[in-house]
Write a structure and sequence with these properties.
CATH architecture: Beta Barrel
Keywords: Molybdenum
Structural class: mainly beta
CATH superfamily: RNA polymerase II/Efflux pump adaptor protein, barrel-sandwich hybrid domain
Organism: Phyllobacterium myrsinacearum
Strand order of the largest sheet: 3-2-1-4
Number of strands: 4
CATH topology: OB fold (Dihydrolipoamide Acetyltransferase, E2P)
Radius of gyration: 13 Å
Strand content: over 45%
Pfam families: TOBE
Protein name: Transporter
Number of helices: 1
Length: about 70
């Protein structure tokens, strides 16, 4: 895989929940879970299932930081 995004986190799919049109895919990245909302069509095309290796790719124009 080649991709220009630098923020790619390799992990393991721990859950795929399909809705009417959108799915939530949860990826465990070193003990932290990242959730992505993607289309059901994308889930099918990628053949995503629990236990698969996958990348969470983060593309954002900015990142905010907060503290209590």
């Amino acid at each position: 895989m080649k991709i220009s995004a630098r923020n790619r986190l390799k992990g393991t799919v721990v859950d795929v929940t399909k809705g009417a049109t959108t799915a939530h895919v949860r990826i465990d990245v070193g003990g932290s879970v990242v959730t992505a909302s993607i289309t059901n069509e994308a889930v099918d095309e990628l053949q995503l299932k629990v236990g698969d290796s996958a990348y969470a790719v983060v593309k954002a124009s900015d990142v905010m930081v907060a503290v209590d």
